[in-house]
């Protein structure tokens, strides 16, 4: 328990926006966008990997990435609120 408390305090010391950007936008948003793009192409094209990068793939991926980055902001904010609840009030 002490280790977890220390980790939560370290997270709080780095700040809200650092946490939201690293955990929400970068970690969750980008990873989920890439996996979603690959999954959608797998559903549409199967194992034909040459079809994954066709005309317009950059626009498709950019729109997916944008949506998941916005979602990452929301995810990071919600996770920050959960971290704040676990910390004792000063």
What does this structure look like?
This protein has 90 residues and is an all-alpha fold. Helix content is 81%, strand content 0%. It is built from 3 helices and no strands. It has helices spanning 2-14, 16-45, 57-86. Helix 2 crosses helix 3 (57-86). It is elongated, with a radius of gyration of 18 Å. The protein starts with a helix and ends with a helix.
Write the layout of secondary structure elements.
Layout: H1 2-14, H2 16-45, H3 57-86
Helix pairs in contact: 2-3
Mean pLDDT: 86
| Strand residues, percent | under 5%
Sheet of most strands: none
Q: Please give the share of residues in helix.
A: over 70%
Number of strands: 0
Shape: elongated
Cα-to-Cα separation, first versus last residue: 19 Å
Uncertain stretches of 5 or more adjacent residues: none
SSE pattern, N- to C-terminal: HHH
How many individual helices?
Answer: 3
Q: Could you tell me the radius of gyration in angstroms?
A: 18 Å
Q: Based on helices, strands and strand pairing, what is the structural class?
A: mainly alpha
């Amino acid at each position: 328990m002490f280790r977890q408390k220390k980790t939560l305090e370290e997270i709080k010391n780095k700040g809200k926006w650092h946490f939201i950007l690293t955990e929400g936008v970068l970690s969750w948003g980008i990873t989920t966008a890439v996996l979603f793009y690959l999954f959608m192409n797998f559903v549409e094209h199967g194992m034909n990997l040459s079809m994954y990068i066709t005309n317009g793939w950059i626009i498709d991926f950019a729109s997916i990435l944008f949506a998941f980055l916005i979602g990452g902001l929301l995810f990071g904010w919600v996770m920050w609120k959960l971290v704040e609840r676990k910390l004792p009030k000063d």
